[in-house]
């Protein structure tokens, strides 16, 4: 049985990264029973974020205040460590538009490649201090996971915009940031839920399927 998982991604949202890792754990432990297809659709947390990027640490400190920032850092560091990663807030934050252009474009080369690209960009942004608005970072990620035509796409700032806007209109206009994950068009899961929550939703979707 195939389970279709649609994800609305805000590429610079840390809860997305955590949710993705938990989803992957759930998929890994359920993959004998199901075939999965994971698709990513764009969602913008902050459409006006500057393209050239701004200092991420300073941005968080301003947004949360210095003491909240410290608390968030230690919480995120723990969560990331438990997932096997190092949390890193160095580098820049800013517009995610180009990353959405690339992710949307990559779907035509296979959803497995699209998924690998998202994983790479999350690692770049959350663990390696790389800015996903930087063309070089995007091109390196595309090359690493074997996506062709990325250079032509990113070189022309008008390319792929229509596709992103179509997706935004078709899918993301009906959600308000949450839920981020939808399984078989029905089971909605928000934010950084643990793997068990995904596993229960897989089972519920499978039970629906067998009743039909
Ligand atoms: C961001 O600002 C901090 C000081 O608040 C500085 O140490 C760091 O190097 C800056 N990072 C970048 C990428 O400019």
From TrEMBL:
Keyword Signal: yes
The name this protein goes by in its record: DSBA-like thioredoxin domain-containing protein
Keywords from the named record: Signal
Gene3D superfamilies the record matches: Glutaredoxin
Single GO MF annotation: oxidoreductase activity
Any Pfam family: DSBA
Entry-linked InterPro entries: DSBA-like_thioredoxin_dom, Thioredoxin-like_sf
This protein's record includes keyword Signal: yes
Cleaved signal peptide residues: 1-19
């Amino acid at each position: 049985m195939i389970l279709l998982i649609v994800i609305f991604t805000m590429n610079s949202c840390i809860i997305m990264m955590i949710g993705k890792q938990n989803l992957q754990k759930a998929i890994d432990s359920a993959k004998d029973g199901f075939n999965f297809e994971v698709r990513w659709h764009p969602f913008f947390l902050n459409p006006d974020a500057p393209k050239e990027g701004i200092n991420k640490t300073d941005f968080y400190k301003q947004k949360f205040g210095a003491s909240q920032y410290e608390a968030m850092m230690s919480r995120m560091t723990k969560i990331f460590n438990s997932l096997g990663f190092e949390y890193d807030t160095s580098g820049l934050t800013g517009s995610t538009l180009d990353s959405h252009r690339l992710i949307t474009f990559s779907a035509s080369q296979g959803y497995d490649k699209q998924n690998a690209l998202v994983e790479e960009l999350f690692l770049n942004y959350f663990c390696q201090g790389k800015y996903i608005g930087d063309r070089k970072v995007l091109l390196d990620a595309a090359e690493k996971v074997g996506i062709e035509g990325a250079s032509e796409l990113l070189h022309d700032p008008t390319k792929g915009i229509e596709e992103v806007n179509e997706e935004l209109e078709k899918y993301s206009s009906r959600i308000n940031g949450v839920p981020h994950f939808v399984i078989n068009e029905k089971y909605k899961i928000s934010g950084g839920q643990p793997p068990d929550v995904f596993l229960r939703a897989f089972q519920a979707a499978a039970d629906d399927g067998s009743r039909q």
